[in-house]
Every structure is written in C-alpha cells, then in structure tokens.
C-alpha cells in the first residue's frame, strides 16, 4: 500500500505481478485478493490520466475494458497460446501495460469506424442471457416481430432509441449477437463471431451484453 516509490518498503508493480502469479499457482487466494486490487488500482490511476473522460468517447468503458484485459491475463496465466505472456509484465510492467493500453485504444478506434447503425431491425433472438435480463431482450424481440401498426410504432420507438443510446461497444455487441445471430465466440479460429468482429474476447462480449441488458431491462415494466 506504500505509494512513495522512494520508500524502502515500496513494492514495484513487477513485484506485485510476481506475487499475484505466485498466489494463483500455489492456490493462495488470500495473497491474490490482497495484491491484485492494489495492482489494478495503480493501473486505474494511470488510465484516468492516459484515457481521460472527455478525451475520447465513452472513456470509462474503455478503461474498464483495458483493466478486464489485464485481469484476463492473470486468469489465463500458464495456459492458452501464450502461457508465459505475464513474464514481460513481471520484468518491465510499465512498458507492458503501456502496450496493452495502446492496443486497447487502437482496437476501440477501429471498432468505432465500423459501428453498426440501428436501422430496420430483424427479429431479435434471446440467447443465453442471465434470467434477470432475458425479459428485456424478449420484450424487444416481441416488439420488432409484430406487424407494423401505429401502436407498434409507439412501442418500437423507445427500444430503437434505447439501443441507439447504448455506448458503441455495447450497441455493437447487441446487434451482432441478438440481431445478426453471431455467436459470442467459437473454438473454431476460422469462424467469424462477435468476438472476432470486435477484435476482443468472448468474455468481453458477454460483459458488454450484460451491461447493455441492464440498461434495457428498465423498459420491461414500462411496456
């Protein structure tokens, strides 16, 4: 918890990475729970400066996405295609995290260039959302499935506006999965999925869908 880098008791971020990895490998959950939040807190402070609110659209979601990417590295440590990826973080953390941050910003910029606009939507299909959120997407699906009438337009318009108002990353995830029918992710590297189109992981897609559903679920009571 000592933040003064000149203090003899200060633990460098490289050391924190080592401790988190050691805790995971030894099954020491207490060690991981004590150290990882400190490391993420340092990263969050860095992102507040480097990815500030007002500096780019939806900076808060982008900062969280970058932190999620870092957390996932610890989850996948020792497995997957790059089992030793955290070795560099344990040696040169600031340089490694800078690269992760820049990759996240560039990925977000590419994603915004191809953001899907909400137009005349085909029927939405509810797939695997948590029970608390299924009603939101089911209501949207029902609204878009009925024949166009004056009453249909009245009910449909709030949903169109609500989807358009979602942050671009959440809107794109909803469109890809629940409108165009893409899988969230696939074990087949050749299959095009929501994750491959957004250049992110399936876990990130699911996080975006959960956040979007939470925003849309308020309409289930009104309509």
Describe this protein's structure.
The protein contains eleven helices and no strands. It is mainly α and 223 residues long. The protein folds into two domains: 101 residues; 92 residues, Arc Repressor Mutant, subunit A (Orthogonal Bundle), CATH 1.10.10. Helix 1 runs antiparallel to helix 2, helix 3 packs across helix 5 and helix 6 packs across helix 10. The longest helix has 22 residues. It starts with 12 loop residues before the first helix and ends with a helix.
- The total of helices stands at 11
SSE order, one letter for each helix or strand: HHHHHHHHHHH
Low-confidence stretches: 116-134, 139-155
What is the molecular shape?
globular
Largest sheet: none
Q: Which structural class should the secondary elements be placed in?
A: mainly alpha
Strand content: under 5%
Radius of gyration: 21 Å
Summarize model confidence as the mean pLDDT: 78
Count of discrete structural domains? 2
**Helix percent band:** 55-70%
Give the beta-strand count.
Answer: 0
How far apart, in Å, are the first and last alpha carbons?
49 Å
Layout: helices, strands, pairs:
Blueprint: H1 13-26, H2 29-50, H3 59-75, H4 86-91, H5 93-113, H6 131-145, H7 150-165, H8 168-179, H9 194-198, H10 202-216, H11 219-222
How would you summarize this macromolecular structure in one to three sentences?
The protein is mostly helical.
Descriptive terms for the model:
223 residues; mainly alpha; Arc Repressor Mutant, subunit A; 2 domains; 11 helices; globular
């Amino acid at each position: 918890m000592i933040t003064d880098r000149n203090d003899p008791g200060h633990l460098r971020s490289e050391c924190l990475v080592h401790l988190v990895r050691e805790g995971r490998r030894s099954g020491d959950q207490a060690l991981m729970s004590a150290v990882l939040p400190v490391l993420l807190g340092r990263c969050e402070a860095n992102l507040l400066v480097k990815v500030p609110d007002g500096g780019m659209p939806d900076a808060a979601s982008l900062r969280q996405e970058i932190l999620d990417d870092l957390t996932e590295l610890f989850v996948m440590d020792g497995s997957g295609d790059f089992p030793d990826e955290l070795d560099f973080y344990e040696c040169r953390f600031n340089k490694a995290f800078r690269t992760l941050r820049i990759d996240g910003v560039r990925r977000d910029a590419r994603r915004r260039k191809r953001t899907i606009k909400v137009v005349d939507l085909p029927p939405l299909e509810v797939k695997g959302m948590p029970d608390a959120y299924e009603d939101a997407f089911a209501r949207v699906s029902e609204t878009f499935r009925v024949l166009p009438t004056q009453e249909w337009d009245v009910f449909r318009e709030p949903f169109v506006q609500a989807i358009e108002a979602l942050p671009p990353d959440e809107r794109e995830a909803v469109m890809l999965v629940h409108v165009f029918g893409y899988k969230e992710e696939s074990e087949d590297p050749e299959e095009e999925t929501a994750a491959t189109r957004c250049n992110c992981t399936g876990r990130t897609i699911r996080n975006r869908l959960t956040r979007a559903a939470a925003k849309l679920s308020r309409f289930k009571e009104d309509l």
